[in-house]
Task: structure prediction
Amino acid sequence: MKILCVGRNYAEHAKELKNEVPTEPVIFMKPKSALLQAPTPFHYPEFTNELHHELELVLHICRNGKYIPEKQAHDYYDKITVGIDFTARDIQAELKKKGLPWEKAKAWDHSAVVGDWIDVTPAMLKQAIHFSMLKNGEMVQEGNHRDMIFSFDRIIAHVSGYFSLNIGDLIFTGTPAGVGECVTGDLLEGFLDKEKLFALSIK
Result:
């Protein structure tokens, strides 16, 4: 199992971090060890002083494939949830200044959180998929999959041109505007429409 992630897939998020809006998907990866497995608690990592939450829609891959045409991509994911791509923003800023890879800021153990899975249906994909997150009871991020620069199917077609997709792989599809810092004691709750799919305490 591998975790594929899309960066800067919402124009407003790219702007809030002063990044250019991309013309093709920005892809990075997290290893299997990045996935926080329930009921393992999430602990604030010792190496950062600026931990940021990034709420995302996450797809579960259900078929093996490579070089998948965009028009067939919907056959390769069967479930969806909301998740957090945790980022050590201070570490990332230093790495970016030096032109170095982001792994230390993005791919550390337990940096990927996913909620409960929901089956994807054709009717769901025809509607706007709204998702949101509360921090200590206050809305901090919300998004709509129709605001993505690159659609689910475009992402899968693009990614599969470089990496074989395998059953059980996860794709984090990008975060909307509103990313921000979280600290020990915060409670983060993720929703797909009005259904709560995760509740995470930072210890």
Remarks:
- The chain has a mean pLDDT of 94.
